[in-house]
Amino acid sequence: MRRLIAAFVFSAVGLGGCERATEAPAAPESAALDVCLDDGAAPADRRTRCDEVLAQPALESAQRAAALSVRGELKRRAGDPTGALADFNAALALDEALSEAKLGRAAVLLDSGQLDAAEPLINGVIEQGDAPARANYLLGLLRARQGNPDAARTAFDASVAADNRNAEVFAARGTLRQAHGDEAGAMQDFDAALRLDGPNREALGGRCWSRVRQSGDLATALRDAEAALEVSVRDKTAQLCRGLIQLRREDWTEARAAYDAVLLNEPTNAAALYGRGLARRELGERDEAADDIRSAFRLDSGIDREFERLGVDD
User: Fold this and answer.
1) What is the DSSP letter of 163?
2) What is the pTM assigned to this prediction?
3) Rounded mean pLDDT, 240-244
4) What ranges in the chain are assigned the alpha helix state H?
5) Cβ distance 92 to 101 under 8 Å?
6) What pLDDT is recorded for position 215?
7) DSSP secondary structure string, 22-72?
8) Which of 47, 111, 52, 41 shows the shortest CA–CA distance to 79?
């Protein structure tokens, strides 16, 4: 994006003379576009500046497409997929080859589970040779959700090779490694993600589980879970890890609260039902505990063995 702004703002240098262009203050609209397209600027500032830029009726189509693409990604990350998709589609109507807008649209489709619709957009950008880090990151997410962990790992590795400064990629690769038993590799990736982005909740939640399984350091693991929940109280991975830790610490009220938070959004989560059942039983809620545990077994007949492996006995 910064390359685009350089082309837009400084293209007049050859027309007006280098000395005058260097000394002249930037026009307000150019300054707004600069912030809008700056990956290092605060998201709220970028959104405000993008809105200002897009309100300009005389804005060149290439600039408008770039600003729409940025605003679309900001909306997506803020939890507005409908608004994001509208911006990405508007950007592509102006520039059908704009890789950032294609990948943004693909990300919205991935978030909503529309894997078949996302795949050609991602592959098209990779074939163009554009944005290899982000394109391969999204391809990794796609392959993981399609149940192809080897292809997902290859794509994440390619993303890191193209740009090793993206915390999201390390977090996603860590999650993949953890799911397939590579706790040491997962911990390395989670640590790398958190060095780049301290409040990355996927890495914090994943590292909580790695600490529980590897070292049994419950106090440090709980700090990771709580840090993830400060970013989003709805984070399922962190809440489940928090619940498990509180069961092991015999803090039944806090364990129940963690599992309640998961079940509020996912009523059929077997681990949350079983964990809440154990906590309820200790709190004297015998009938409710029995209902939760029966429901958990109907969903996963081996859920008790998983809790035993994690240090929680029935």
Assistant:
1) -
2) 0.84
3) 98
4) 2-10, 13-16, 18-23, 28-36, 43-54, 61-77, 81-94, 99-111, 115-128, 132-145, 149-162, 167-179, 183-196, 201-214, 218-231, 236-248, 252-265, 270-282, 286-299, 303-309
5) yes
6) 82
7) HHSPPPHHHHHHHHHT-TTS-HHHHHHHHHHHHT-TT--HHHHHHHHHHHH
8) 111
